[in-house]
């Protein structure tokens, strides 16, 4: 799958440079270092095959057919590194090889590429630029026989060797010279490996010279006074010892300059025609990249954190389509975790913390509301992002956090705690959206017959949300949290419970809407509890802890209380009627042919209507509460009989007796 590289919205956590050096400047400087180190390193130096007619250049290089120098880069199998990370090969649909990008020579087959030519193609360096650099390196080597590259301040020597005649025009030369001077400024004054005192007279003098060179081109001839003054100041600052007994010049090994330069080199491992793929020749290219460590002051630990960042940032910058890059970054983080446990170096810890915080921040932006980020179409990416986020969080907490170190081992499960936070945050967020949607649905259907109450709609939607969580997200999150589904339903239970509690507090009487809501809530609760029980059956306590997080809605109890209130209201109403009617009724038994008072008929009619109304209530517990109703009605009948009897004369009383 081919993808265009877009600008990442992430600032590099490796550090921002004080000097005005853009990525193009850093890339050019990194390539100069790469060529210089590769050319002078022992064992397997780069072979340079020039297409130009400059015969003086070819005399300084061995034959390209020499088995010691010529290294075919046409890999028969995927590299060991790519296999270890599970990274994909460049897209089979790509018609170009890495050697056919900008700056590559004409007529060269992929099979004839050397590491140097491949790197030039990968970093998009023009062949004329490459030729100019190599020509200068030959001159430098001739003038400093026996000196190792790390004991040379490369920008200073390039300034000395390259003249206006080596460039296309005056503008190109001045642009190059200004960039080179800025590199000296960044490496020696702004980001030195060995800290500089502001009062240091040499550094003050160097700053003045550099400021002058940035205003107007500096004369760089061998016998130039300005060049001699510059060389004296540069070497004085660069030669300061960092405590090690070596002859290394410190001009590109201060943080963050060295990390940013190294980042540019690592970026070259990606195929120029398929930005999401690492080239097959990455093992060999990486071997040469690592030779820059002596100049850049890098080590395996810094390499691991830089490579992690480059893999992650490439995923972000390529529209997040190749999750293999995230998996590779996650795999690299496993090495970073080992490193973090073995070092207390403050500079390393600062870079580590910054990088991991950036990765974690990006991940959490998506995971704290993962329902908005992922669905069945991109669920595979979620697993990769969760894994990376959890790995970053574990290192930050376990290996950097002082608070964690003060606690006894085993008290904090970082992975489980992190996933717990993601679940609760995301579900609370999606619940709020679901509530708003239910409210909108209710308003839209208000003119329809018998519209559902909002909380009844919400109960149905939350039930579907819980089922989707169980089927789609929980299987992924279960890798880090064994009871992910339980946490999810407990969160939904709490969110809905809060809304229901407010609703119940506002119910004054038993209405169809109230009963609908309470019955829907009761069903939802049963469904949520069932999911929690099934999910936590293998837990140490059999799921008791998570069930304790789910206090009952008590919807049935709320319905029962409302029914009891309804019963009491009906009974009280009947009693009031008895009092009022018997006070007004005048009844003469001799004048009444039926032989009974009209009130007796009416009271029985009211009781009959009350029983009919009771059985029409939309509740599930008619039999359970019927005794309460019958007891109340019976009391009313007895009250009626007593009141009626006491209101009659003695003759009636005796006749009744």
From TrEMBL:
Biased composition (Low complexity): 88-99
Domain MHD1: 515-657
A Pfam family annotated for this UniProt entry: TPR_PATROL1
Cited InterPro entries: Munc13_1, PATROL1_C, unc-13_homologue
Ranges of compositional bias, category Polar residues: 48-57, 64-77
Region of interest: Disordered: 44-116
Listed name of the protein: MHD1 domain-containing protein
């Amino acid at each position: 799958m081919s993808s265009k590289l877009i600008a990442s919205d992430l600032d590099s956590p490796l550090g921002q440079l004080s000097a005005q050096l853009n990525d193009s400047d850093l890339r050019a400087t990194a390539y100069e270092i790469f060529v210089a180190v590769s050319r002078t390193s022992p064992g397997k130096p780069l072979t340079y095959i020039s297409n130009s007619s400059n015969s003086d250049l070819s005399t300084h290089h061995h034959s390209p057919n020499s088995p010691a120098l010529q290294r075919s880069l046409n890999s028969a199998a995927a590299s060991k590194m790519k296999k270890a990370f599970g990274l994909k090969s460049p897209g089979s649909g790509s018609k170009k090889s890495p050697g056919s990008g900008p700056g590559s020579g004409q007529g060269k087959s992929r099979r004839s590429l050397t590491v140097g030519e491949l790197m030039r193609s990968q970093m998009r360096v023009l062949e004329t630029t490459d030729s100019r650099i190599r020509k200068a390196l030959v001159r430098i080597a001739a003038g400093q026989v026996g000196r190792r590259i790390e004991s040379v301040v490369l920008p200073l020597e390039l300034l000395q060797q390259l003249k206006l005649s080596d460039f296309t025009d005056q503008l190109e030369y001045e642009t190059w010279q200004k960039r080179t001077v800025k590199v000296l400024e960044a490496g020696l004054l702004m980001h030195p490996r060995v800290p500089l005192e502001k009062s240091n007279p040499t550094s003050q003098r160097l700053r003045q010279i550099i400021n002058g060179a940035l205003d107007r081109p500096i004369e760089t001839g061998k016998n130039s006074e300005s060049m001699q003054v510059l060389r004296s100041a540069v070497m004085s600052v660069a030669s300061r010892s960092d405590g090690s007994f070596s002859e290394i010049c410190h001009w590109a090994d201060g943080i963050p300059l060295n990390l940013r330069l190294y980042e540019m080199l690592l970026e070259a491992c990606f195929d120029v025609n398929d930005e999401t793929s690492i080239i097959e020749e990455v093992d060999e290219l990486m071997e040469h990249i690592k030779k820059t460590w002596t100049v850049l002051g890098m080590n395996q630990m810094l390499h691991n954190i830089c490579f992690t960042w480059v893999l992650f940032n490439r995923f972000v910058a390529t529209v997040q389509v190749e999750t293999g890059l995230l998996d590779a970054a996650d795999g690299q983080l496993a090495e970073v975790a080992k490193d973090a446990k073995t070092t207390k170096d403050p500079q390393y810890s600062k870079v580590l913390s910054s990088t991991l915080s950036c990765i974690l921040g990006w991940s959490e932006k998506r995971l704290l509301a993962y329902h908005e980020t992922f669905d069945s179409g991109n669920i595979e990416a979620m697993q990769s992002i969760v894994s990376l986020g959890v790995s970053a969080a574990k290192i930050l907490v376990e290996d950097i956090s002082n608070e964690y170190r003060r606690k006894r081992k085993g008290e904090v499960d970082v992975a489980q705690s992190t996933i717990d936070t993601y679940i609760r945050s995301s579900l609370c967020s999606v619940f709020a959206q679901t509530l708003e949607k239910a409210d909108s649905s209710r308003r839209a259907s208000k003119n329809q017959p018998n519209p559902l109450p909002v909380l009844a709609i919400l109960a149905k939607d939350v039930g579907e949300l819980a089922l989707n969580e169980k089927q789609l997200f929980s299987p992924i999150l279960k890798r880090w949290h064994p009871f992910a589904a339980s946490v999810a339903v407990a969160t939904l239970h709490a969110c809905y419970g809060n809304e229901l509690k407010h609703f119940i507090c506002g119910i004054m009487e038993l209405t169809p809407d109230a009963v609908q809501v309470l019955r829907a809530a009761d069903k939802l609760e049963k469904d949520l509890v069932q999911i929690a029980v099934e999910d936590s059956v293998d837990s140490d306590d059999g799921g008791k802890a998570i069930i304790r997080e789910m206090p009952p809605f008590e919807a049935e109890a709320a319905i029962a209380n409302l029914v009891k209130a309804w019963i009491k209201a009906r009974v009280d109403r009947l009693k009031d009627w008895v009092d009022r009617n018997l006070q007004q009724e005048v009844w003469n038994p001799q004048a009444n042919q039926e032989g009974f008072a009209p009130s007796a008929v009416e009271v029985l009619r009211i009781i009959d209507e009350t029983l009919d109304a009771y059985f029409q209530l939309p509740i599930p517990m008619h039999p359970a509460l019927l005794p309460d109703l019958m007891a109340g009605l019976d009391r009313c009948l007895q009250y009626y009989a007593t009141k009626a009897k006491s209101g009659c004369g003695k003759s009636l009383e005796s006749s009744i007796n």
